[in-house]
Q: What sequence folds into this?
């Protein structure tokens, strides 16, 4: 046995190579774009912050998988998922990678379009504005304009701090 150990190891390597070749030729890997856009889920957003930048609703993903796995990927609903994790982000501008998960294996991630997103988070602000009545035009013939009364006399607005601060009157 000791004299032929090199021959045994060579035979084992060759047998393994033949087996791998046979398996991959029967079910070859294919690189394809996942059919249909994948909805991007936002998770971990602080409830006191508001997203003010444009976030894409969907992402296009390119994957590498054996042909038989592609059949499973396309048959199962939500077999590929995209997540935008905003956990721990404070107010300001952040670049966040889109995370791709797949429920079927073996799959290799190749490319996502877009791969990352610039997210602008602003604090949620609330402000009370007094209503100022404004009449325009003239009443129709035979009618007369009376005094204006408002109920309620104030309104509450809320939204991203930069936009709420721009409100001057209501």
A:
């Amino acid at each position: 046995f000791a004299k032929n150990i090199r021959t045994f190891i060579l035979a084992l390597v060759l047998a393994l190579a033949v087996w791998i070749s046979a398996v991959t030729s029967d079910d070859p890997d294919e690189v394809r774009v996942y059919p249909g856009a994948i909805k991007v889920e936002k998770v971990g957003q602080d409830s006191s912050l508001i997203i003010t930048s444009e976030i894409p609703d969907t992402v296009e993903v390119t994957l590498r998988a054996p042909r038989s796995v592609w059949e499973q990927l396309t048959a199962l609903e939500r077999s590929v998922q995209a997540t935008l994790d905003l956990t721990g982000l404070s107010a300001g501008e952040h670049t966040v990678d889109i995370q791709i998960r797949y429920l079927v294996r073996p799959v290799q991630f190749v490319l996502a379009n877009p791969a990352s997103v610039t997210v602008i988070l602003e604090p949620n602000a609330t402000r009370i504005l007094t209503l100022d009545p404004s009449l325009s035009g003239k009443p129709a013939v035979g009618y007369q304009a009376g005094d204006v009364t408002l109920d309620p006399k104030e309104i509450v607005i809320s939204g991203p701090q930069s936009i709420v601060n721009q409100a001057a009157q209501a």
Q: What stands out?
A: The chain has a mean pLDDT of 89. The first strand starts at residue 29 and ends at 33.
